[in-house]
Design brief:
The complex is a heterodimer of chains A (339) and B (342). By secondary structure, chain A is α/β, with parallel strands linked by helices. Chain A has helices spanning 57-64, 87-94, 114-124, 134-144, 161-173, 191-208, 219-225, 243-248, 253-260, 267-272, 303-307, and strands at residues 7-20, 26-41, 46-50, 72-77, 80-81, 97-100, 179-183, 211-215, 228-233, 236-242. Chain A is globular. Chain B is an all-alpha fold and 342 residues long. Helix content of chain B is 67%, strand content 0%. Classes of the chains: A alpha/beta (339), B mainly alpha (342).
Chain lengths: 339, 342
Amino acid sequence: MAEQPILEVKDLVKHYPLSQGVLFRKQTGAVKAVDGVSFALGKGETLGIVGESGCGKSTLAKVLMNLERATSGQVLYKGEDISRLSGAALKAVRRNIQMVFQDPYTSLNPRMTVGDIIGEPYEIHPEVAPKGERRRAVQDLLDVVGLNPEYINRYPHQFSGGQRQRIGIARGLALKPEIIICDEPVSALDVSVQAQVINLLDQLQKDFELSYMFIAHDLSIVRHISDRVGVMYLGKMVEIGSDLEIYDHATHPYTQALLSAVPVPDPTARETRDRIVLSGDIPSPANPPSGCRFRTRCWKAEDRCSTEVPLLAVPSLLSGPAAHASACHFAEVRQTVTT
Amino acid sequence: MPDQDKYNEADPLSEAGTGEEEMPSAVESRTFDLGTMEGQSLIKAERLADHPETPAIEDRVVARSLWQDAWRDLRRNPIFIISGLLIIFLVVMAIWPGLFTSTDPLKCDLSKSQQGAESGHPFGFDTQGCDVYSRTVHGARASITVGVCATAGAALTGTVLGGLAGFFGGWLDSVVSRIADIFFGIPILLGGLVFLSVIPSQSIWIVVAFIVVLGWPQLARIGRGAVITAKQQDYVTAARALGAGNARLMLRHILPNAVAPIIVVATIALGTYIALEATLSFLGVGLKPPTVSWGIDISSAADTFRNAPHMLLYPAGALSLTVLAFIMLGDAVRDALDPKLR
């Protein structure tokens, strides 16, 4: 990335305070949902974020959208820190960063018509489309996402899940944003419909030069749509690189374990492949392990891992596609992993 | 019209084809103005092909909002029309009782005490020998004023306070909820005896104010719960992400989704409040003669029900009819605001 990234995240931290006491609340700890995450997103690029449930993916999206205030760290949009903005300045930034939600059944107001749902961005930001042209703009958006423009007077319950998600995407596109944060946009849909929505997102990216941050737990979908992939574990980014680097030359043991769990459609390959089964549960983010957070479930863990926090950096011993940022003291490519 | 076909034939953007373009069958049967999507669109496509001068689809659709849809729905709903006419009738009776009877409700003849119907006096006479028909007509004003004003006051106070408490949470929620708990803890009759007996004048507005003060916590609790449920939905987060302010979130997204339980409880409360006014009158702390109200008549007729049932039946019937009309109205409005029931 030679040019300046459109979105840059530096040491982003989001802690939710845990408090006790009925009358006098006192903070006894914090859930470290996102704990020092850094990455950059280039223009027109798709960054996939994967990780298991509870690793902080959705919290990261909410902090980026300013729906939750960051505890510390920076979110730079074109070099400007947006994580502390409020009022009119925040509203202006919202025009450029929009979101597609996970569940199309709860993300559309059941008592608003489709026209009102997609037209609402224009009511909030009247400068984007003059009043007389709004209905037209809404119908154009419906057309863009592959829905019949005559549907503006229908209500969300009259649509299927995939169609609802298209409505959600149309709403996200209304303000002509540059960045769209997709928080598991297809995980609530049938597999056959997932492909349609993914391809729609792909097409829209080409048409409107969008940058996506694509959060998911389905590794194959992320590989399909992403240029680069970041892997999160317990509030931290453990490995980040291009899709080739991550999928074929993963160096972090957690990424390798995740990849080995991807279902393989070929039965013979399935018999012979090497599966890594992690023992134990994901530790509580309120009390994460010292040093490397993955050490409690890692087969490579040594004493060093419990005292020294591995930094997300390119390991000096590796070369070629394996030389990408990985937060492991013993990063190396595991050749037996097949995907 | 190639534009039309795009949504029926294979979607250019999708691999899996048109599978998801079909509506769920349950929805199909409910939509009133659209048949199956494909069939309907094909018919339209044919029609458009025959008449190429038909304007483009974008110009033929007039955008509607929830409230416009609800109003259009209500106008066709017989329950709404019947209850609306009933309420208009009762309100006219409350404002101009002289239109319905020329008999003075306070001009009584003890010699006719508890007598049945006779010419010119279709509902008979009460214990004091007053005309029951005239008293029923004239009683509408006090009872409907108490019922409607107390309900409106309690619903408004309760919804606003409970809604704000639920929306903002935190200390505001704690303060409002605790105050509501305090008022909830006051037994309504004991409270009535204490409060209303120390206030010298017992005009109708004092009674209304008393009922509002003791009635709002119930609606505040309902409203708070409904708002908290609605506020956690993703569509509220989505609107916030678009930059919507609190006023828009509350009025456009949360209120329409939280109003249904409030309407139900408020319409039922309306009947309770009219009955409560009667109870207070019975205890001697509510409205007092010479004010005429259904409540006063019902409570005084209750003792002699076996000898002269007409004294109870007519004012009680009028009260029931009023409550029924408002409950039906509330039901119709609630249904009209729920697109899934259309």
